Amino acid sequence: MLKRLLLTAMVGCFTVTMSYAVDQSTSKVIIPVNRTAATSGQQMFTSYCAPCHGVDGRGHGPAASSLRTQPTDLTGLIKKNHGKYPDTHIVAVLQFGTDVPSHGSADMPVWGPILGKMSPTNPQDKSLRISNLSRYLETIQAK
User: Rounded CA gap, 105 and 97, in Å?
Assistant: First the structure.
Protein backbone atom coordinates (compact mmCIF):
# COMPACT_ATOMS: atom_id res chain seq x y z
CA MET A 1 0.00 0.00 0.00
CA LEU A 2 2.82 2.38 0.91
CA LYS A 3 4.64 1.58 -2.35
CA ARG A 4 1.52 2.37 -4.37
CA LEU A 5 1.04 5.69 -2.54
CA LEU A 6 4.72 6.58 -3.01
CA LEU A 7 4.58 5.70 -6.72
CA THR A 8 1.43 7.80 -7.20
CA ALA A 9 3.06 10.77 -5.45
CA MET A 10 6.19 10.45 -7.62
CA VAL A 11 4.14 10.33 -10.83
CA GLY A 12 2.17 13.37 -9.66
CA CYS A 13 5.33 15.33 -8.92
CA PHE A 14 6.85 14.35 -12.26
CA THR A 15 3.72 15.46 -14.12
CA VAL A 16 3.62 18.82 -12.33
CA THR A 17 7.34 19.36 -12.96
CA MET A 18 7.04 18.56 -16.68
CA SER A 19 4.00 20.79 -17.16
CA TYR A 20 5.86 23.65 -15.46
CA ALA A 21 8.87 23.11 -17.75
CA VAL A 22 6.67 23.15 -20.85
CA ASP A 23 4.97 26.37 -19.71
CA GLN A 24 8.34 28.06 -19.18
CA SER A 25 9.72 27.11 -22.60
CA THR A 26 6.72 28.46 -24.51
CA SER A 27 6.54 31.86 -22.85
CA LYS A 28 6.25 34.83 -25.18
CA VAL A 29 7.83 38.23 -25.02
CA ILE A 30 5.13 40.87 -25.07
CA ILE A 31 5.98 44.36 -26.27
CA PRO A 32 3.44 46.89 -25.01
CA VAL A 33 2.06 49.07 -27.78
CA ASN A 34 1.27 52.49 -26.42
CA ARG A 35 0.24 55.37 -28.63
CA THR A 36 3.15 57.58 -29.64
CA ALA A 37 3.37 60.82 -31.60
CA ALA A 38 2.99 60.17 -35.33
CA THR A 39 5.59 62.84 -36.02
CA SER A 40 8.35 61.36 -33.85
CA GLY A 41 10.21 58.52 -35.52
CA GLN A 42 12.59 58.36 -32.57
CA GLN A 43 9.76 57.96 -30.05
CA MET A 44 8.18 55.21 -32.15
CA PHE A 45 11.54 53.44 -32.50
CA THR A 46 12.12 53.59 -28.75
CA SER A 47 8.64 52.23 -28.02
CA TYR A 48 8.24 49.60 -30.73
CA CYS A 49 11.67 48.58 -32.05
CA ALA A 50 14.14 49.07 -29.19
CA PRO A 51 12.92 46.11 -27.11
CA CYS A 52 14.50 43.80 -29.71
CA HIS A 53 16.83 46.00 -31.78
CA GLY A 54 18.15 48.05 -28.83
CA VAL A 55 17.98 51.78 -28.22
CA ASP A 56 21.06 52.21 -30.42
CA GLY A 57 19.60 49.96 -33.16
CA ARG A 58 22.46 47.47 -33.05
CA GLY A 59 20.31 44.44 -32.18
CA HIS A 60 20.98 44.11 -28.45
CA GLY A 61 17.63 45.07 -26.90
CA PRO A 62 16.38 43.56 -23.65
CA ALA A 63 14.10 41.10 -25.48
CA ALA A 64 16.80 40.00 -27.97
CA SER A 65 18.00 37.10 -25.83
CA SER A 66 14.58 35.44 -26.02
CA LEU A 67 14.56 35.40 -29.83
CA ARG A 68 15.74 32.50 -32.00
CA THR A 69 18.21 34.69 -33.88
CA GLN A 70 19.94 37.96 -33.00
CA PRO A 71 17.90 40.93 -34.32
CA THR A 72 19.31 42.83 -37.27
CA ASP A 73 21.77 45.64 -36.65
CA LEU A 74 19.67 48.46 -38.08
CA THR A 75 22.66 50.84 -38.16
CA GLY A 76 24.22 48.97 -41.09
CA LEU A 77 21.40 49.15 -43.61
CA ILE A 78 23.25 51.58 -45.89
CA LYS A 79 26.40 49.41 -45.85
CA LYS A 80 24.39 46.32 -46.75
CA ASN A 81 22.70 48.20 -49.60
CA HIS A 82 25.82 49.49 -51.39
CA GLY A 83 25.77 52.98 -49.86
CA LYS A 84 22.08 53.72 -50.38
CA TYR A 85 19.41 53.72 -47.68
CA PRO A 86 16.74 51.14 -48.68
CA ASP A 87 13.73 53.34 -47.86
CA THR A 88 11.20 51.41 -49.97
CA HIS A 89 12.27 48.10 -48.46
CA ILE A 90 12.10 49.45 -44.90
CA VAL A 91 8.60 50.85 -45.46
CA ALA A 92 7.49 47.48 -46.89
CA VAL A 93 8.94 45.57 -43.92
CA LEU A 94 7.23 47.88 -41.44
CA GLN A 95 3.93 47.58 -43.28
CA PHE A 96 3.87 43.91 -44.29
CA GLY A 97 6.58 42.12 -42.30
CA THR A 98 9.45 40.14 -43.77
CA ASP A 99 10.37 36.63 -44.78
CA VAL A 100 13.75 36.81 -43.06
CA PRO A 101 14.36 33.27 -41.71
CA SER A 102 15.26 34.57 -38.24
CA HIS A 103 11.74 35.95 -37.97
CA GLY A 104 10.30 32.49 -38.56
CA SER A 105 6.64 33.01 -39.32
CA ALA A 106 6.59 36.78 -38.89
CA ASP A 107 7.88 36.80 -35.28
CA MET A 108 8.69 40.47 -35.80
CA PRO A 109 5.46 42.37 -35.35
CA VAL A 110 4.02 43.65 -38.58
CA TRP A 111 3.64 47.24 -37.45
CA GLY A 112 1.53 48.46 -40.39
CA PRO A 113 -1.80 47.12 -39.09
CA ILE A 114 -0.94 48.06 -35.50
CA LEU A 115 0.01 51.62 -36.41
CA GLY A 116 -3.09 51.90 -38.60
CA LYS A 117 -5.36 51.06 -35.68
CA MET A 118 -3.96 53.93 -33.62
CA SER A 119 -5.94 56.51 -35.62
CA PRO A 120 -8.81 54.72 -37.35
CA THR A 121 -10.42 58.03 -38.33
CA ASN A 122 -7.24 59.30 -40.03
CA PRO A 123 -6.02 56.84 -42.71
CA GLN A 124 -2.96 59.01 -43.48
CA ASP A 125 -1.70 58.59 -39.91
CA LYS A 126 -0.40 55.06 -40.63
CA SER A 127 1.60 56.26 -43.64
CA LEU A 128 2.93 59.21 -41.66
CA ARG A 129 4.04 56.95 -38.81
CA ILE A 130 5.77 54.45 -41.10
CA SER A 131 7.45 57.22 -43.09
CA ASN A 132 8.75 58.98 -39.97
CA LEU A 133 9.99 55.73 -38.46
CA SER A 134 11.83 54.93 -41.70
CA ARG A 135 13.35 58.42 -41.76
CA TYR A 136 14.53 58.00 -38.17
CA LEU A 137 16.22 54.70 -39.08
CA GLU A 138 18.07 56.56 -41.81
CA THR A 139 19.49 58.95 -39.19
CA ILE A 140 21.05 56.14 -37.09
CA GLN A 141 23.05 54.65 -39.94
CA ALA A 142 26.75 54.05 -39.29
CA LYS A 143 29.05 56.34 -41.24
Answer: 10
